[in-house]
Amino acid sequence: MNRITVSAPGKLMLLGEHAVVDNHPCLVTAVDQRMRVTVEILDILEFQLEAMDVNVTGYRKPLRELGVGDIPKGAKFVEIAIKNINEKYPIKTGLKITTTSEFSSQFGFGSSSASTVCVVKALSQLLKLKLTNKEIFDISYKTVLDIQGKGSGFDVGAAVYGGTLYFVTGGKMIEPLKIRSLSLIVGYSGVKADTVTLMNNVKVTFANKQDRLTKIYNDIEDLVNQAKVVLVKGDLKTFGELMNKNQKYLQELGVSIDKLDNMIKGALAAGAYGAKLSGAGGGDCMIAISPENKEKEVERRIKQAGGEIIDVATNAEGVRIES
How far is CA 33 from CA 137, 251, 313, in A? Predict the structure, then answer.
């Protein structure tokens, strides 16, 4: 075998953002918009990348220079993932990698983590490394930390395992939840947000209020633990109420914005059980959970507040070999 295509899902955070970076659990679900990566073996000892979705074409360098020099933003995760594998399992062939995405990277669905996981899974298969899911997670998570300096790894977990997960920072616990389905309404604010900036903002805001921050994170953990139980039971009404409580804490952290607040208010006014921002905040997406007969009205009110409805299915399959 000298060529393989692998795909991995994006993700949506259900509850627990920000607290998860500080060793607290979260709930995350994989979404069916997928990243695809094709890896081909080359005769020359060179790394080549074609990633048109992130404006990288014709990128190439010798394997021995992986991670060295000025790496384009769109190439970083793929290149550092290969470098990390090469350090543990020396690669003796050249590699050409082509990435294509079903989801726009603007939505904050975790495209960087999904592409990293695809590369690690593909090389595990091509180089006959037989890596377990946890080993794929660990190499991929290290790659994210090498580039961003911080991060909880929940998006890596969703890309590897798929489904809906109870996840603790760094993969200390990755527990797949048995749920039949989870119908989420997703609204995109049109505002691009940067996760690391938002995490730093929270740090600055609460620099002199550490006790309050600890209390907020502990309270969010309680909500996550309650939400896990009711979600498995299928009690979406209570799940929605817990989402609303989580959103109040996110507003106190200062990571919600007026646009998201208005989309959330619209969803609740239309009869949603619960609505909150999903992810780091500052823009990106909000999610709502609603009785089936109210879903259309919830969508209408989110649009009325200036949001764009993103059509995704949740609880999607994790990383897989396509061909």
Answer: 20, 28, 8
Distance from the Cα of residue 260 to its chain's centroid: 19
Q: CA-CA distances (angstroms) from residue 229 to 38, 130, 208? A: 39, 34, 35
For residue 237, what are the CA distances in angstroms to 244, 288, 312? 11, 11, 21
Note if the pTM is more than 0.85: yes
Of 261, 305, 313, 312, give the one whose Cα is nearest residue 283.
Answer: 261
Q: State pLDDT tens for residues 262-292.
A: 999 999 999 999 999 998 888 889 999 999 9
- 200-234 exposure pattern, b = at least 16 Cβ within 10 A, e = fewer: ebbeeebeeeeeebeebbebbbebbbbbbebbeee
Catalytic residues: 155
Q: Tally Cβ neighbours within 10 Å of residue 79.
A: 25
Helix (H) or strand (E) holding 125: helix 111-126
Distance, CA of 315 to CA of 11 (rounded, Å): 9
pLDDT digits (tens, 9 = 90+) for 45-86: 999 999 998 889 999 999 999 999 999 999 999 999 999 999
Q: Tokens for 29?
A: 């679900």
Q: What is the DSSP letter of 317?
A: B
The Cα–Cα gap between 36 and 104 comes to: 13
Using alpha carbons, list the distances in angstroms from residue 113 to 72, 74, 309: 16, 12, 23
Sheet hosting strand 308-310, strand order edge to edge? 274-278, 285-289, 185-188, 308-310
> CA torsion sign, 50 to 56 to 60 to 61?
negative
Residue 105 pLDDT > 60, yes or no? no
Strand-pair partners of 25: 168
CB-based contact 29:315 (threshold 8 Å): yes
